[in-house]
Amino acid sequence: MNIRYYLSIFPTEALIASNLEPAQFGAYMATGAKNGSYERIVFIEIEGGQGDYFDWKAAEERCHPHEDGRPKNSVWLSVYRVLEHVPLTALKDLYMTTLDGRTLCLAKGKFVEDTHGEYYVYNELCPINPLVVSKLNPLEFSQYMTDTHNKVAVPKVAFADLKTINLDEPTKTGNIGRTYDRNLEHFKNCVRQVLSLPDKLNKNVERSHVEDFSYSIVNRGIYLGDGKNLVMYPMLDMADLRKNHYDWARSALIF
Fold first, then answer.
1. Sheet containing 120-126: which strands, arranged edge to edge?
2. Which parts of the chain fold into alpha helices (H)?
3. For 187-226, what is each residue's pLDDT tens digit?
4. Per the omega criterion (within 30 degrees of 0), is the bond before 127 cis?
5. What is the Cα–Cα distance from 86 to 50, expressed in whole angstroms?
6. Domain-by-domain residue ranges, the chain?
7. CA dihedral 57, 61, 62, 68 (to 10 degrees)
8. CA distance 30 to 13
């Protein structure tokens, strides 16, 4: 069996080798009986063998089927500074798995900024995970977060672009989950600070936003950037989800 390599960017940063196809791997990670876990996972298949930070030889030696022919589910290669050491050129497609193990594939694409919104909301996924209100579009935000001249910077960043709300009539926005509902006035104040203060580019709404990150409010997509380049995984539109991925969308609480 072939060895596949998966970069997990949510909820845990890790590099994992496996004999499983992406959909099988997602189901195993989300609902693995041995671990008793039921959790969402966002992961990206990558091209193995690039760079010397990871022990690719160990993966080849350990990641092979069991004696009875069953595939090897997972061989963990690293859980520290993983994203930093994976070249953007090694990234393949991205997968989002729901609590019950249903997996949606988002194809790798290039960033295209069609419109610049009044403000953006980003859920950073890896290596840090705050909820952020920003003036910056995804490319600008990636550049800001990886700029070493800033007091706080990371080598690479993965983040989701979230749906925004009408601050005057937030209840008319539709299904926005718990992301804004649970502390709506604080969220509004963060947005107003960013919009009213010329030098305020970003404002943290929550320092950690793992439990409340919801697939249902992903807007344009998920991004990975290193400051120079930005990879975009465009979110599928509602018509495509309803026609071709209805069960996943129901599981993700989109419908």
1. 109-110, 230-234, 218-225, 157-162, 120-126, 131-134, 202-206
2. 22-31, 56-62, 138-145, 178-181, 184-196, 238-244, 246-251
3. 889 999 999 999 999 999 988 877 778 999 999 999 999 9
4. yes
5. 8
6. 4-106, 110-237
7. 150
8. 15
